[in-house]
Design goal:
By secondary structure, the chain is α+β, with helices and mostly antiparallel strands. Helices cover 45% and strands 23% of the residues. About 3% of the residues have low confidence. It comes from Cystobacter fuscus (strain ATCC 25194 / DSM 2262 / NBRC 100088 / M29).
Length: 680
């Protein structure tokens, strides 16, 4: 190579080789001739790796790919000289790029390491380990030439500045100057990706100034003070800037390793905290939104601290307790212990108003026990069982105490999501349902009055049947009485015959009394009384009311009552009212349609957790235009009807937790079906 540059390259002690991107040699200096034994003429234009038989644990192709991606590579290769000797060579490759950024050439600096001393090998091994660690770390690492900054600080001290911190605050331009004086010696790949947008050469040799925005330079100033105080390291969270101008939140750490003192360098580690900071900001924003929503809600909300209560339950779990309900039963005081362990952490304004407090301070810190009357303890017990089963929500109507001790009907809602559970809290909502309860009570009263009126109306329709039912035992009593009189008029009455007549009279009197009792029950307006009942027995009792009507209308009744049915829990009178009402309606419809063979079928059968009652008739069926309105109040097809019978039937069934519907039978007639839950 002619000229000064050629003389410099040929005079270098290291092997210097320049090759094009395809691997063909463009420059081969004197040190390369000495190292490999090939003359310049023998190497120019030849493929470098093929000529020197280069190999590496990683393939040469892989090294070349890494070189093109990163712009540099350094390591050790094995190559073969002209004499056939294999040598270890330490090389450093750097990509030289053209104006458009495309690779133009690759320059290599090489050194023979075959005959290094043991000390040199150990030193190189340590350096190699450092380089591997430097590059492998997930954090961004920078090696900074700090020598000029050290000189500037020493000059400041020698100039008589005592209060260095005060000087820094008064002269921010000095901090700017030290940033410009600090030069980047080396960075790892993470630094290139984070700060240099993938271009290592844009960082190496530059200053630190572009990376420190004005609002963060006080942190850099702290690192200078730490250097003067000879601290081993300093870590601070701050904001830095990439070469592209993007701001990142970072953990900045600077240290002064002992091995770097002689080189005048310091090490800087930077961990990108942008995702964490963004997440923290989102959490804070989410908490702010939660607090705002918490306070704005019209529902009374209580944030309950459950840390101690969960510790109690966790202890039970650790002891192998799986059935918490059984544990509550065998340890009656444990429920109160759990309640005392739950305290109110926060409330919203709606809760303050609902509980009759002056402000939140009267509620915060209180155990929940104070607000639960003993009658409501089963509800909180069920909520704890729900939580123990890891269920995330619970809701039930109950009663709470206000601060003044008055009772309040509430809808108690509990949110026990995993997020809340992890923070040792649950969110409780209380909705005042006092007015709703009063309205429902009034509605139930009205429904009861309507049901009573409906029963009286129904009894009016059954007047002939009732008279017939009562007349039979009364006529029998009269006949038995006349017979007894005749026997008594004899000179020697037959006492055995008189005893038999008397027994029959007592039986008929009891039969009449039973009929009157059923009528009184049907006509009474007492509160609903639920009890365990046999479904088939209820139907048989109801049919007795219909006996005369069935005979008068010549209706054939067929009972298909399943054996072994479980009991139901219901009001006997109301259930009989439904059966009689449905049967009377069916008989009236069949009479109006002039059915030649009127038939009724009553059936019972068991379902999934419920019993099913069916009544079928042989009438004309339900007109399509009436089907959706059958159970509406005041809808009737009778000239003198009020349209309340089926509506009342529906209300009674739904109040018992069942369902009722009607359908047409394909072969003709209508079917009314209702279900009731099996008694627990």
């Amino acid at each position: 190579m002619p000229g000064l540059l050629g003389a410099v390259v040929n005079g270098a002690a290291e092997s210097v080789i320049v090759r094009d991107p395809s691997g063909r040699v463009l420059l081969w200096n004197k040190a390369s001739e000495a190292l490999y034994g090939f003359s310049r003429e023998a190497m120019l234009g030849r493929h470098l790796h093929d000529r020197l038989n280069a190999h590496h644990p990683t393939t040469i192709t892989g090294l070349e790919q890494h070189l093109l991606e990163q712009g540099h590579w350094e390591g050790e290769l094995k190559r073969t000289t002209a004499s056939g000797e294999e040598r270890r060579v330490e090389v450093r490759w750097t990509v030289l790029r053209g104006p458009e950024g495309h690779p133009a050439a690759i320059i290599e600096y090489g050194r023979d390491t075959t005959r290094l001393s043991v000390i040199e090998l150990e030193s190189r091994l340590q350096a190699h380990r450092y380089r591997n660690l430097f590059q492998a770390m997930a954090a961004a690492f920078w090696e900074i030439d700090f020598s000029e900054v050290s000189r500037m600080l020493a000059q400041l001290i020698h100039g008589g500045v005592k209060d260095v911190r005060g000087y820094f605050e008064a002269h921010p331009e000095f901090i700017d100057a030290t940033l410009a004086a600090a030069r980047v010696v080396d960075v790892n790949d993470k630094s290139v990706a984070l700060f240099g947008d993938g271009r290592r050469e844009d960082i190496i040799g530059g200053s630190l100034e572009p990376y420190w925005p004005p609002e963060s330079r006080h942190v850099y100033a702290e690192s200078l003070l730490a250097a003067l105080d000879r601290l081993p390291h300093l870590s601070r969270e701050t904001r830095l800037t990439t070469l592209g101008g993007r701001k990142i939140d970072a953990l900045f750490t600077v240290c002064w390793p002992s091995g770097h003192h002689g080189r005048g360098t310091v090490l800087i580690g930077i961990i990108d905290l942008s995702d964490r900071v963004a997440a923290e900001q989102e959490v804070r924003a989410s908490e702010l939104r939660f607090r705002q929503l918490f306070q704005a809600m019209s529902t009374a909300l209580f944030q309950i601290n459950t840390t101690r209560q969960r510790a109690l339950l966790a202890e039970l779990e650790a002891r192998g307790v799986e059935d918490l309900a059984a544990y509550f039963d065998s340890h009656p005081g444990f429920l109160l212990t759990c309640m005392d362990a739950m305290t109110i952490d926060d409330v919203n304004e709606a809760a303050v108003h609902l509980m009759g407090a002056r402000d939140r301070s009267e509620l915060v810190g209180q155990p929940v026990t104070r607000f639960w009357p003993p009658s409501s303890h089963p509800v909180i017990r069920r909520s704890l069982l729900s939580s123990y089963r890891k269920q995330t929500s619970f809701e039930e109507e109950t009663v709470h105490y206000r601060l003044d001790g008055s009772e309040l009907n509430t809808l108690f809602t509990l949110n026990d999501s995993p997020e809340l559970r992890a923070r040792g809290m649950v969110l409780v909502g209380l909705t005042d349902i006092t007015e709703r309860e009063a309205a429902q009570k009034a509605l139930r009263q009205v429904q009861s009055e309507f049901a009573h009126a409906s029963r009286l109306s129904m009894l009016g329709e059954l007047t002939a049947s009732i008279a017939h039912e009562v007349n039979q035992p009364l006529a029998a009593i009269a006949a038995h009485g006349a017979a007894a009189t005749r026997w008594l008029s004899r000179p020697e009455p037959d006492l055995d015959e008189l005893r038999a007549i008397n027994a029959n009279m007592v039986s008929d009197a009891r039969r009449a009394a039973d009929i009157i009792a059923r009528l009184r029950a049907m006509a009474s307006n007492k509160a609903s009384e639920r009890q365990r009942l046999s479904p088939n027995l209820v139907i048989e009792e109801a049919v007795r009311f219909l006996h005369h009507e069935l005979m008068a209308h010549e209706v054939e009744l067929r009972l298909e009552l399943a054996d072994g049915l479980p009991d139901i829990e219901a009001d006997r009178v109301q259930l009989q009212q439904i059966i009689v009402n449905l049967a009377l309606n069916a008989m009236q419809e069949m009479k109006r349609a002039c059915c030649p063979r009127p038939r009724l079928k009553l059936r019972t059968l068991a379902g999934d957790g419920e019993l099913r009652f069916e009544l079928e008739d042989s009438g004309p069926g339900i007109p399509p235009q009436h089907h959706d309105r059958l159970f509406q109040s005041f809808f009737t097809t009778k000239a003198a009807g009020l349209g309340l019978g089926l509506s009342i039937c529906r209300n009674i069934i739904e109040a018992h937790g069942g369902r009722i519907w009607a359908e047409n039978i394909p072969s003709g007639g209508a079917r009314f079906v209702f279900t009731l839950p099996i008694a627990g």
